[in-house]
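Journal club prep, shared notes

We agreed each person brings one worked example of a sequence with its structure written out as tokens. Mine is N5-carboxyaminoimidazole ribonucleotide mutase. I'm keeping it raw so we can talk through how to read the token line rather than staring at a rendered picture. Sequence first:
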Amino acid sequence: MSNPIVGILMGSDSDFEIMKESAKVLKDFGVPFEVVVTSAHRTPERTLEYAKSAKKRGLKVLIVGAGMAAHLAGVIAAKTTIPVIGVPINSSSLNGIDALYSTLQMPSGIPVGTMAIGKAGAKNAALYAIQMLALSDKDLSERLENFRKDFERVVVEREKKVHE
Ligand code: RP5
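Then the structure, token by token:
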């Protein structure tokens, strides 16, 4: 996509199965984004370069998913003042608890807004990014309001099925 304002980053292409949930939401809302595979451990220089240049390139929010010893979101956050939203990926035998702690437990001064483990987290990361962007974008804000209304309707409809 040209002129992306959200970056979706992940530590491995194997994370895409989860992180595509963020991409789907951003696409539905018409928010331009880019997807990048970069690792804090395997490609540290590429990761730092991305973080350092993100703001200059016009990115406004970064969504970062990683599993196992998930340092990616923290390393990215260390090198940019753009808000970083972390998504712990359940790619290990610890089912993502390792990634949750690694992503969430940032030392003071360098925040990473951490979502739930896995697909729900990836979806919510995109919605959270949209909420931030909507603060200065009236159209996007309206789309968000409509999304919430539709969402409420779907929940009520589903409840009817429970009683059938
Ligand atoms: C992390 O290690 C990645 O974010 C991924 O969740 C996990 C496993 O990566 P692969 O071995 O599948 O490439 O860096």
